[in-house]
Amino acid sequence: MNIIRICILALILPFAAACSDDDSETKTPKDPVLELGEDSKPLSELDPDETCQATRQFMEDALSLEETQRAYCLFYGMAFSADQTGCEAFVADCVAQPADASELADSCDYNFENCAATIGDLESCENAKLAMMEALARTLSCADMEAGRPAILDLPESCDRISQCQVGATGCVVDTDCDEGYVCDMEACVPAT
Fold first, then answer.
1. C-alpha span between 182 and 174 (Å, rounded)
2. Any residues with CB less than 8 A from the CB of 71 and at least 6 apart, and which?
3. In a domain, 29, yes or no
4. N or C terminus: which one in the chain shows less Cβ crowding within 10 Å?
5. Is-contact 94 8, C-beta < 8 A?
6. Nearest CA to 16 among 67, 80, 51?
7. Is residue 155 part of a domain?
């Protein structure tokens, strides 16, 4: 079960926010949109720490910790299960594992210095990730994998550009594509937990 927990935390880290005092309630959808500045400007004009806080808050405002955990469990269940039954078993085991909010607090590791992405790329990517997370948390189920991969799971090209703006990023498909101390998370190398 620890491998599942590690996988979940590895996925949650780049997107989830530090939990609030009451994460047990389902948050009401507010149709949030991340806006960090002028879309055409380079990310190097933003402070990485402030940007991290803003993206964390953006996700926290939209999804509870439990919804975030369910979204990642379902994502992995769909990705690594052969059929609906296997997916459902994976998701049930996965959501039974407690998410450790203290590990989520240090989840961003941006490096904007040599990053070619723009503020608009980051906004587009984070908005698409939120739409995907909301669908995984609230509307999709393992039954949806029988009809093929739901289109909402395909992130825009802006996310590829953002993945190159993380410390240790090289773009990846599997963990061995990443630098030492990093793991592959949805095509981005992120710090291993």
1. 11
2. 63, 132, 133, 134, 136, 137
3. no
4. N
5. yes
6. 67
7. yes
Please report, rounded to a whole number, the percentage of residues in the chain having pLDDT higher than 90.
16
CB atoms within 10 A of CB 75: 20
27 within a domain of the structure (yes/no): no
Q: Which residue has the tokens 């203290």?
A: 102
Average pLDDT over residues 63-76: 88
What is the β-pairing status of strands 182-185 and 188-191? antiparallel
Which spans in the chain are helix H? Answer: 2-12, 48-62, 65-80, 84-95, 101-104, 119-138, 157-163
- Predicted TM-score (pTM) above 0.85: no
Backbone angles phi, psi at 178, to 5 degrees: -100, 160
Interval 80-125: pLDDT, tens: 888 899 999 999 999 998 876 554 434 567 778 778 889 999 999 9
The residue segments making up the domain with residue 159 are: 2-16+38-191
The count of structural domains within the chain is 1
